[in-house]
Design brief:
The structure is a single chain. This protein is of the alpha/beta class. The protein is built from nine helices and eight strands. Helix content is about 40%, strand content about 15%. An eight-stranded parallel β-sheet has the order 1-2-3-4-5-6-7-8.
């Protein structure tokens, strides 16, 4: 079994108001999820380390993530949240740099206007991340690819990774506009992509491998095996699939690649990108 890094999972102490985005259609995840809940699935699937990613856009989220990582050594890195427009952003980043497990940051840009990531003040904030050695996770929907392209072109030395292959509308079978946007993004060699979060963009109850494969084929073709990484998006994925089933789905897709290429996607790219 190839060792694996899960480059994208979450944990939370559920609060109905704080986590209001978890609506009644997602009842299965309206509860607490801690690292110890994930640990058995990691062991079963040969996952030797993880990257825990922010859920809410506040300082409390970072504090929670740090506290969980302190007690669970399999968490090798954290992607936290920081106010990109804060006047003391650089000072905050200097302090975070003292916490070696904090690898990067993300903002829930999918909830912002489509031009958010192309705004000069946002680009300037993300530029500060790079100056302090932090990565940036791009969380968007496919309609925001144009703004994301402007961002990555403006900061060619900043390490970026696109979460959830930019959330194409898989359930509707929409692919052409998304593919075109992703092709432009992928021309920028500072941009990686996570194979994650796909089943929740498909029909939760009726998705199948054949439905996902055209999207998987696309990201493999345009990013290549050296800029893709695996992520479970646990526990959000549980609305549509189990952890092991998602690993098996990705494994099926990667099985035709060479061992070196599979190792890159399963663990080496994430280790390199996040400096785990």
């Amino acid at each position: 079994m190839i060792p694996k890094i899960d480059a994208h999972h979450h944990c939370w102490q559920y609060d109905a108001q704080r986590h209001s985005w978890i609506d009644d259609s997602m009842q299965v995840i309206q509860r607490d999820f801690f690292p110890e809940d994930l640990a058995p699935a990691l062991a079963e699937n040969g996952v030797v380390g993880t990257v825990m990613v922010q859920v809410e856009m506040d300082e409390a989220d970072n504090v929670f993530s740090m506290s969980q990582a302190a007690h669970h050594p399999f968490i090798k890195g954290i992607v936290g949240w920081i106010d990109l427009l804060a006047p003391d952003l650089s000072e905050q980043l200097v302090q975070w740099k003292e916490q070696s497990i904090m690898k990067g940051f993300r903002h829930i840009a999918q909830a912002e206007p489509d031009d958010f990531l192309a705004r000069p003040e946002v680009i300037k904030g993300i530029e500060h991340l790079g100056k302090h050695g932090f990565t940036y996770d791009i969380l968007i929907k496919s309609l925001q690819l144009d703004a994301s392209l402007a961002l990555v072109q403006a900061l060619p030395d900043q390490p970026f990774v696109i979460d959830h292959i930019a959330k194409p509308y898989i359930a509707a079978g929409e692919i052409d506009a998304w593919k075109s946007g992703m092709q432009q993004i992928a021309k920028n060699k500072n941009v990686f992509c996570k194979i994650s979060g796909m089943v929740t963009e498909a029909d939760w109850r009726n998705w199948n491998y054949e439905q996902l494969k055209p999207y998987l084929d696309t990201v493999l073709e345009i990013f290549g095996p050296d800029r893709l990484m695996f992520g479970s998006d646990w526990p959000v994925c549980l609305v549509a699939t189990g952890f092991t089933q998602w690993v098996q789905t990705v494994d099926r897709f990667l099985s035709s690649l060479t061992l070196t290429e599979q190792e890159a996607i399963w663990h080496k790219n994430a280790t390199r990108f996040y400096n785990l």
